[in-house]
Amino acid sequence: MTRTLTVGVLALQGDVREHAAALEAVGTRAVPVRRISELEAVDGLVVPGGESTTIDKLLHVFGLVDPLRAMIKEGLPVYGSCAGMILLADRITGGTADQQTLGGMDVVVRRNAFGRQVDSFETDLEMAGLPGGPVRTAFIRAPWIEEAGDDVEVLARIPATDTSGREVAAAGKIVAARQGPLLATAFHPEITGDARVHGLFARIIAGDDEGRSAG
Amino acid sequence: MADETTTSAGVGQVGTARVKRGMAEMLKGGVIMDVVTPEQAKIAEDAGAVAVMALERVPADIRAQGGVSRMSDPDMIDGIIEAVSIPVMAKARIGHFVEAQVLQSLGVDYIDESEVLTPADYTNHIDKWGFTVPFVCGATNLGEALRRITEGAAMIRSKGEAGTGDVSNATTHMRQIRQQIRKLSSLPEDELYVAAKELQAPYELVAEVAREGKLPVVLFTAGGIATPADAAMMMQLGAEGVFVGSGIFKSGNPATRAKAIVQATTFFDDADVIAKVSRGLGEAMVGINVEEEPEPVRLAERGW
């Protein structure tokens, strides 16, 4: 990398600080973003975990929806975790009646797919394109990707069985994916101290990782 | 009760400290609103609340009506869970571990072991480690916060004085907690042992707070927040999010006020935004001056 990348973290609501720390850990400069003027200075954007309906409403109230959609269309790299994945989806299910998304990824995301907080869990998960073994992941009232278009590269699925060999109800569900410069995970690598997903995002921003579609 | 090896959809470990504390991280920068009906829950969700707190009576009514205040009727909690898609919290009495077991079985997303209800045990709080569902607890100072975390609380809120619309105690408690954290951070390591003794909290936790300069869990504020400016002030004082109890549904125009408080919490450091959202909100809740409230009725003094 010839210069330090500046990565915005959408700071309307959610775990902004954890994403900023993970971004700093992989050598990028993290800045909170709440205004259009702040958006113009970033090389990429993280949409953090949080409450997707709240973030959606605040995006509308503060006039960020149209500028962000335009920037995504023009190729702004964006990484969304959990609520962020919902906001990057072209279509969602299980949302509120008026809930909208920024869109950009040709996927259908089911909100709260894994259930309520008592069903939230952590586990180790293999993720394509991430060397160094499985990622420690935390799924918190997490969504999953129900359908993915042809241009979407699936990076991780829930395995068929758990570590003790028992069958898993959510087997095969897509929980990490990429489409060009857009990256999404249903889980929160930012709270488990494994910065490799943010490292991948930094490489996507820098153009060092073109993904499947370019290869 | 939780078994940390039970699996969710058969996938991984549920009820770990990380997913309990992590849930609170996802609520940061947001507003959690007290609601007593499914209709109010819907208004809160539409206004942009990150979660609702389901209870039978808001603190202002508990204060006015007196009597013993308990966990809500399960039918009422079910109704609210049905009505909204955002997280639903509910209150259990201090020390009432069976109310907590019931709330967990109803599928609430967070339990508030709350001084707003009448305590069920004047010695012990609930042992919160044994539950899959996470707990938030109130605190007036750092020692109290650390004792709750030791018992398994995954989130702390400053207590304030619920049901008054008077923000002064929330301010006092938030300043107190933050000031004690700053003081710990400035101490040499060999003075942390006595600091732990004085705080009546475990040394390891005290040393962790001194090292990190913050609590190991998310710190929200509660108790007396009634206006967008109240919420923004608490955020500027270091709260990571806001609970609003009676302040919304005891006001003249709940939907508008709820939206305004959500926006002021996000732009807590931008006076132009706070000024804009503070216009035309109608009547704030009438309010009770905490100083005029006789001490036996001060809820913040419940819990130890």
From TrEMBL, chain A:
Pathway membership, UniProt: Cofactor biosynthesis; pyridoxal 5'-phosphate biosynthesis
Q: Give the EC number.
A: 4.3.3.6, 3.5.1.2
Q: Which UniProt keywords apply?
A: Glutamine amidotransferase, Hydrolase, Lyase, Pyridoxal phosphate
InterPro entries the UniProt entry points to = Class_I_gatase-like (IPR029062), PdxT/SNO (IPR002161), PdxT/SNO_CS (IPR021196)
Report whether Lyase shows up as a keyword of the record: yes
SUPFAM superfamilies, alphabetized: Class I glutamine amidotransferase-like (SSF52317)
Q: Which residues form the active site?
A: C82, H188, E190
> What is catalysed by this protein?
aldehydo-D-ribose 5-phosphate + D-glyceraldehyde 3-phosphate + L-glutamine = pyridoxal 5'-phosphate + L-glutamate + phosphate + 3 H2O + H(+); L-glutamine + H2O = L-glutamate + NH4(+)
Source domain of life is Bacteria
Q: Which residues bind L-glutamine?
A: G50, E51, S52, R111, I140, R141
Q: Name one Pfam family in it.
A: SNO
Function, in words = Catalyzes the hydrolysis of glutamine to glutamate and ammonia as part of the biosynthesis of pyridoxal 5'-phosphate. The resulting ammonia molecule is channeled to the active site of PdxS.
HAMAP family with a match to the protein in the record: PdxT
State the similarity comment.
Belongs to the glutaminase PdxT/SNO family.
Q: Assembly and interactions?
A: In the presence of PdxS, forms a dodecamer of heterodimers. Only shows activity in the heterodimer.
Q: What is this protein called?
A: Pyridoxal 5'-phosphate synthase subunit PdxT
Tell me what gene encodes this: pdxT
From TrEMBL, chain B:
Recorded hits in InterPro entries, A to Z, give: Aldolase_TIM, PdxS/SNZ, PdxS/SNZ_N, RibuloseP-bd_barrel
Tell me the ranges covered by the PdxS/SNZ N-terminal domain, including all copies. 17-222
Q: Does the keyword Transport apply?
A: no
**What residues bind D-glyceraldehyde 3-phosphate, as annotated?**
R175
Q: Which reaction does it catalyse?
A: aldehydo-D-ribose 5-phosphate + D-glyceraldehyde 3-phosphate + L-glutamine = pyridoxal 5'-phosphate + L-glutamate + phosphate + 3 H2O + H(+)
Q: In which pathway does it act?
A: Cofactor biosynthesis; pyridoxal 5'-phosphate biosynthesis
Q: Which domain of life is it from?
A: Bacteria
Alphabetically ordered keywords of this record: Lyase, Pyridoxal phosphate, Schiff base
Binding residue positions for D-ribose 5-phosphate: D34, G163, G224, G245, S246
- The enzyme's E.C. designation: 4.3.3.6
List, in alphabetical order, the Gene Ontology terms for molecular function in this entry. lyase activity
The UniProt entry annotates the active site at K91
Instruction: Give the residues annotated as coiled coil.
Output: none
Q: Which Gene3D superfamilies match?
A: Aldolase class I
Q: Which PANTHER family match?
A: PYRIDOXAL 5'-PHOSPHATE SYNTHASE SUBUNIT SNZ1-RELATED
Q: Hey, which family's this protein in?
A: Belongs to the PdxS/SNZ family.
User: How is the quaternary structure described?
Assistant: In the presence of PdxT, forms a dodecamer of heterodimers.
Please describe what this protein does. Answer: Catalyzes the formation of pyridoxal 5'-phosphate from ribose 5-phosphate (RBP), glyceraldehyde 3-phosphate (G3P) and ammonia. The ammonia is provided by the PdxT subunit. Can also use ribulose 5-phosphate and dihydroxyacetone phosphate as substrates, resulting from enzyme-catalyzed isomerization of RBP and G3P, respectively.
Q: What is this protein called?
A: Pyridoxal 5'-phosphate synthase subunit PdxS
